[in-house]
Amino acid sequence: ALEGSLIQDVTLAPVFTPNGDGINDELSVGFVLLKVLEERPLGVAFYDLGGRLVGQGQRGEATIGEATIGKAGEQIFTWDGRDLGGQVVPPGIYLCRIKVEADDRDYPLTRVVHVVY
Question: What is the largest CA-CA distance in the chain?
């Protein structure tokens, strides 16, 4: 990761297959959040190559309204490959964007994810 980054040790499979066969149907995005001692907004979002938001990573706890919050430590989000309308996204290349809102600025990190069937 970049020097000074709050996001380290990102783990996610570069390919997943949300086709309902019970194998590799969900993408898990894990990372370690550093130097964030108070709870701050953070999230994982998925975009198509045109820059359109297609999905949101989910986490079971630590939410305030629609925002997810967290502080230093391991974070895990999942995505079932469904778009904002609940439909499975078509096969293709998507961008996974992890973002932490800190006091001084936002800290985004982007990775590539391939959806295949």
Answer: 44
What's this model's pTM, rounded to 2 decimal places? 0.86
Amino acid at residue number 45: A
CA distance 86 to 67: 19
Take residue 69 and report the two structure tokens written for it. Answer: 């919050």
> What is the Cα–Cα distance from 102 to 115, expressed in whole angstroms?
31
Residue with tokens 């982007």: 110
Place of tokens 């990102």: 10
Distance of alpha carbon 46 from alpha carbon 83, whole angstroms: 9
Structure tokens at 16: 């997943």
Rg (CA), the chain: 14
Q: Is the pLDDT of residue 64 over 60?
A: no
